[in-house]
Amino acid sequence: MDQTVFLFLLSDGVISGAIYALIAVSLVLTFNVTRVIAVFVGELAVFAPLTYAVLLTGKVPGTVWLSAAMLVLWAGLERERPRTALPLLGAAGATVGLAYLTASATSPWLLWPAAVLLVLPIGAAAYRVFYQPKLSETVLFLLIQAVGIHFVLQGLGLVFFGPEQLRPPPLLRGTITLLGVPVARQALLVLLFAFLVLALLGWLFNFTVIGKALRASAMNRRGAMLMGIDPFRAGMTAFLLTSLVAGVAGMLVAPITNVAYYSGFSLGIKGFVVAILAGFASYPLVIAGALFMALVESFSAFYASAYREVLVFALILPVLFWRSVATLDLGGDE
Amino acid sequence: MLEVAGLSVRYGKVEAVREVSLAVAKGEVVTLIGPNGAGKTSTLNGLMGLAEAGGAASLAGTSIVGARPQDLVGLGLVLVPERRELFAGMTVRDNLLLGAFRRVMRRDDAVGESLERVYELFPRLAERRRQYAGTLSGGEQQMLAIGRGLMADPSLLMLDEPSLGLAPRVMADIFAALRRLKEEGMTILLVEQNAVAAFGLADRGYVLDGGRIVLEGETEALARDPQVRASYLGLRRGVAS
Amino acid sequence: MRVFVPLAVAYLALPALLPPFQMTVLGFALIATMVVYGINLITGRAGITSLGQAAFMGFGAYATAIVSSRLGLSPWLGLLAALLLATAMAAVLGALTVRLKGHYLPLATLAWQVAIFILMGNLDGLPGGRTGLRNLPPIDVLGRELTSSRDFYYLAAGMVLVCGWLLTNLARSRTGRATMALRGDAPAAASFGVDPAAQRLKAFVLAAALAGVGGWLYAHFLRFVNPAPFDLQASIVFLIMGVVGGIATVPGAFVGALLVTGLEDVLRDVLPALFGRGGNYEIIAFGLLLLGILHFAPQGLWPVVARFLPRRRPSLPSGPGLPPTGAGRAGAGPLLEVEGLGKRFGGLEAVSDLSLAIAPGEILGLIGPNGAGKTTTFNLITGFERPTAGAVRFGGVDLTRTRPFDDRRSGIARTFQHPHLLLDATLLDNVLLGTFRRTRAGMLASLFRLDAKEEARARVTGMEALRRVGLADLAFELAGNLPLGNQRRLEIARALAADPSLLLLDEPAAGLRDAEKLELADLIRQLAAEGMTVLLVEHDMDLVMNLVDRVIVMNYGRKLAEGPPAVVQNDPAVVEAYLGKPAEDVHGDAEAELADA
Predict the structure, then answer these.
(1) What is the rounded distance in angstroms from the CA atom of residue C26 to the CA atom of residue C257?
(2) Which comes out higher in pLDDT, residue A310 or C67?
(3) How far does A223 lie from chain B, in Å, by closest CA?
(4) Which numeric CATH code is attached to C23-306?
(5) Any domain includes A332
(6) What is the mean pLDDT of residues B209-228?
(7) Is A136 on the interface with B (CB under 8 A)?
(8) Which range among A283-297, C394-408, C580-594 shows the weakest confidence by mean pLDDT?
C-alpha cells in the first residue's frame, strides 16, 4: 500500500474514531452514574441532524413536538411541585417557539445549535419518566428499558423523517489537500469539534465541582449523598450531557455520511463496543479504544473487507478476559 | 440544636433502634456509646436519612425525620460515616472540595477559607493534598473524612466511630483535633465504641444497648458507673441457662 | 394430573380453533419459546445475561441444514447434529465467559454473538453462503412429512411441552436449586458445596442446547436457512421475551414468546389502518408496550397470571431421609484445629498467629471489639478467604487452601451474618440447599426425574431439619415473609440439613430482640446437647457469655485471651480492649475506676 492510500485510510479511521469516541464517552458516563446502558444514544445522535435538515426546508419536524410533549409529560409528573413543573411547561413552549423561529431562518449559525437544543429534552425527559422510578432495578432491566426506548424513538424517527436518507449541508465546504490526500474541510471540523468536546469533558470532570460531583456519584453513591449530592440530579446531568454530546456528534458526522432514521442503531452499537473495550471505565482508554477500533475497521476494509468487523469483535474477548480475571467469582452478578 | 424524641430506626424487618430520645445543645459534645450491635450507627443513619426512621427529631427547630441525606447536608447536619465513604479515585483536595459541594453551588465565598482551616487542623492532609484518597493510611483517611465533614460548615457534626481500626497513636491525633474543634465551639454528636476515649472528650453521654438508651448523664458520672462496663461485657442481663 | 389434563386438551384442540395463518405465528412462537427457555434458565436463574443465544440457534439451524440437505440424511440426525454443535460451542464459549465478573459477562456474549454473526455472513465456505440453503427437507414423523403449519405445530408444541416438563423437573431438583442460588445466594451455595463456575457452565450449555433445538425446528419449519435471523437484534428480542414473560419462570418463556411474536404480527396489520398509511410503525407500539409492561409488571407477565391460578397444596414429605454423612466424627482429638493462622491484606495484618482447637461437643465463642478480625478469621476457616499463613484442619484433614465448595469441607456448615436466603422460595426449598453435598443426582438425571427417590429423601431430611428448629409449620411459606429471628433459624435449619458435625454461626444474634435471643440460645444449647460442635462469632455478650463453654477474645487480629466466660470477663486486658484505651491526654483514673467497679 502506498503512502497516499495509507494516509487516506488513516484519516478515515481517525475521523470515525473521533465520532465513536464521543458516543462511547457519553455511554460510559451514563452507565457509571446511573447503571443504564443507553442504547438509544444512536437515536439521540441522529435526531439532531435530521431535525436540522428539515428545519432548513422551512418546516418544523416531529421531533420538536416529541420534545415538547415529553416536557409536558415530565411537568405532569411533577404536578405537586409547581416550582419544577412550571419551568418545564415553559421549556415546552420555548421549544416549539424556537422551532418556528428557526424554521424561517437560514443562517446555519442559528440553526445548528437550535437543532441540537430542540432534541435535547428527549433524553432528559426519558430519564425522568422511565428511569427515575426504577433506579434500583437490575442492569438487565434498565437495559431492556433502554431497548424499549430505542424502539419507540426509532419508530418515531420513521414517522417524522420518512425512510429516505438525508444529508444536511456541511458547515465548511470543499476539501484541502493534506500530505497529498484530499481531506474534506468538514472532516477537519469534525476532528476539531470532537477534540474540543473531549477536552471540555475532560476539563469538566477534572476541574469543575459539578464534574467532580458526577465522578463522585459514580464512585460512591452513598458518599456522594452524604456530601449533599443528589443522585437523581447527578443522573439527570449525565443524561443531559450524553444527549448533548450525542447530538453534537451526529451533527458533525451527518454531512459526511448520510443519515436516516435507522442510522442511529449502528452508531450506538459501535459506541457501545468501544465502551466495552474500555471496560466502561477510564475515559482516556475509551478514546484510545475508539481510535483503535476505527483504524482497524478502516485498514482491514482495505485488506480483508469481510472480516474486518469480526477482527474487531474477536479482539474484544481476550481484552475482556484480561480485564476481568483475578477475583474468586462467587457472586451471581447482573 | 438537636432534639430527638422516640426515634426508631429499622432496616427492612429489623428494628435496630427503639424509642431513643436524646438532645445535643449548641456547642456541646455529646457521646453515644455502647457495645457493638447496640444500634449506635443505626441511630446516626436514621437521623441522616440513610435508614428508615420513625419518631421525632429536629435540628435547630426544623424536623428532620424522613428527609433525604443530600437535603440534610444543606440544613447543616453532617455525618462522618463509619466506613468513611471516601472517593478513593479522587485526590484529597477534591474530596475536601466535594464536602463543600452544597456551599459551592450556593456560591459561598468562604469555601477557600474552610479548606485552609482543615489543612491547618490536619497538617498531614495538607502535605498529601494531591494524593489519591485510596492511597492514604487508615488514620489519614479518617482525618480526610472528618475534614470533608467540616467543609460542609456543619451546625451539627455527627461522627460514627472515628477510632475504628486505628492504632492508639493515630487515635490520639484525631481526638486531639476533635478537642480543638470542641474548643472552637463546634457542636458534636460522637458515636464511639471506645467509651473511655469518648468520656475524655464529651460533656454528656448516653449509653445505648439493645437499641435502647439504658443510661445517660454527665460523662464524669458515667465514667464511674459500673453499669457501663456491665453493658459492654454482658454481665447485666443473664440469658438463663 | 391437574395441570396435565387442561394442557393436553389445549394441545390437541388448538389447531381446530385457529386458522392456518395464526398457526404459523404460533409455530414461530413455539420455536422462540425453546430459545427463551434457555434464557430464563441462565438469566432468570443463574443470573447470566447472555446477548448471544441467537448464535446458538444459528448453529443448530445450520447443523441440521448441512446434515439434511448437503448430506442428505434424515432431519432427526440433523437434530442430533444441532445438539452436538450447539453444546460443543457453548462449552468452549462458556468456559471463557462464565468466569467473567459483573457486566463483563454480558458484554462478552455480545462480542461473540456479533463476531459469529459476521463470520457466518462472510465465511467463504459456508454452505449456501449469504443467500442461504433452500429446500430443506421437512421433518418426517412415522412416515408423515410435516409440511403444513398444523403438522408442524403438533411436533413443536409437543417438544415445548416436553421441555417445559424437563425444566420444571430441573427447577425442583438439587441442580435447579444450586442454579437458583447462584443468583441471589452464591456465597451460601458455595459453602454448601456448589461450584459456581461449574454450575453456571452447565446451565449455559443446557441453554445453548435448547437454543440449538429451536434452530433445528426453525430450519425445518421454514425449510430455509441463512445467517440473517441469528443476529444481535434477535438475541435482544429473545431477552425481551424472557423479561416480559417472567424471567425466572418456565411458563413465562412461552408467554413472552407468544406475546412478542403475536404482537409483531397483529401490529403489522392493525396499525397502518389506524394511521392511514402503511409502514414500520409497529415498532413504536411495541416499544411502548414493552415499557408499559416493565413499568407495571417488572417481574414479567407470568407471575401476574400465576397469582390467579389455583395453587396446589404441596404434600408433606414422608418416608426415609438421606443417610447420615458421618463426616469428621471419627477419631479422638479436636474436631477443628487452627494453627498460626494469618491473613495479610497489603500492608495490613487482619489476622496474625491465631491458634485454636475445638473439641467435639464444645461450644466455642469467638469475640472481640469491632475490627478485631473475627469475621476474617471466620472467613479463613470457611474458605472464603485464603490464609497467608498457618493451617486449618478439620478432623485431621487439611483444609487450609481449599475453596468453600470443596468436598473435604463436608461436615462443616455455616450461617451468615446477613441471612443469605432465597427470599422468593419456600422455607423447605431453602433448607434443601443444605442437602446438596448429601445428594448425587446430576443435571441429566434431574431433567428426566430419575432422581425422584433421592429428592424425596432429601425433602424428608429437610423437613426434619425444620422440625429441629421449630419451623416445620411454616415449611411452605416464603422465606422473605419471615421475621429476622426465624430467618436466622432457617439458616440454621439449612446448615443442619447438611448433617454437619461442626456448625459455624456468624453473629446469629445480630438484630434479634431479647425474646428471640433467648430462643436462639436455647436452640443452640439443645443442638450441643445432641452432640453438635459449635463455633460462634458474636458481638452480643449477653448471649455469648451465658451460652458458651469457652471464649476466645481477639483484638487487633490476635488472640488476646482464652478461657471460660467468667474468667475472660474479668481479665483486665479484655476489659481494656472492649471499653477502650484512653486517648493520650486522658488520665488513667477513668480507666482505673472502671476496672475497680
Answers:
(1) 9
(2) C67
(3) 5
(4) 1.10.3470
(5) no
(6) 86
(7) no
(8) C580-594
Q: Which residues in chain C are contacts of B35 at CB distance < 8 A?
A: 539-541, 578
Residue A146 lies in a domain: yes
Q: Whole-model pTM?
A: 0.81
The alpha carbon of residue B77 is apart from the nearest alpha carbon of chain C, in Å, by 26
Inspect the interface and report whether the beta carbons of C593 and B223 lie closer than 8 Å: yes
Q: Does residue A132 lie within any of the structural domains?
A: yes
Question: Range of A18's domain?
Answer: 3-323
CB-closest option in A144, A159, A276 to C281: A159
Q: By three-state DSSP, how is residue B238 classified? A: coil
Q: What is the CATH number of domain C334-365+382-413+548-558?
A: 3.40.50.300
Q: Do B161 and C593 touch (CB under 8 A)?
A: no
Cell of B161: 466511630
Q: How confident is the model at residue C588 (pLDDT cuts 50, 70, 90)?
A: very low
Is residue A65 one of the residues assigned to a domain?
Answer: yes
Please tell me the predicted confidence (pLDDT) of residue C326: 65
Considering only the C-alpha atoms of chain C, give the largest distance between any 2 of them, rounded to a whole number of Å.
100
Report the domain count for chain A.
Answer: 1
- List the 109-138 stretch of A: residues with Cβ below 8 A of C: 130, 133-134, 137
Contacts of B111 in chain A (CB under 8 A): none
A332: which residues sit within 8 A by CB, 6+ positions away? C46, C47, C181, C182, C183, C184, C185, C186, C196
Predicted pLDDT at C283:
79
What is the Cα–Cα distance from C287 to A153, expressed in whole angstroms?
A: 9
Cβ atoms of C49 and C43 within 8 Å: the answer is yes
* CB contact (8 A) between residue B36 and residue C597: no
The whole-number pLDDT of residue A168 equals 83
Helix (H, G, I), strand (E, B) or coil at A181: strand
- Contact partners of C by the rule of 3+ C-beta pairs under 8 A? A, B
Extents of the domains making up chain C: 23-306, 334-365+382-413+548-558, 422-497
C236 vs A147, A279, A314: nearest CB = A147
pLDDT tens figures, A31-80: 888 888 898 999 999 999 999 988 888 888 999 999 999 999 999 999 88
Give residue A325's pLDDT. Answer: 55
How many B×C Cβ pairs under 8 Å? Answer: 120
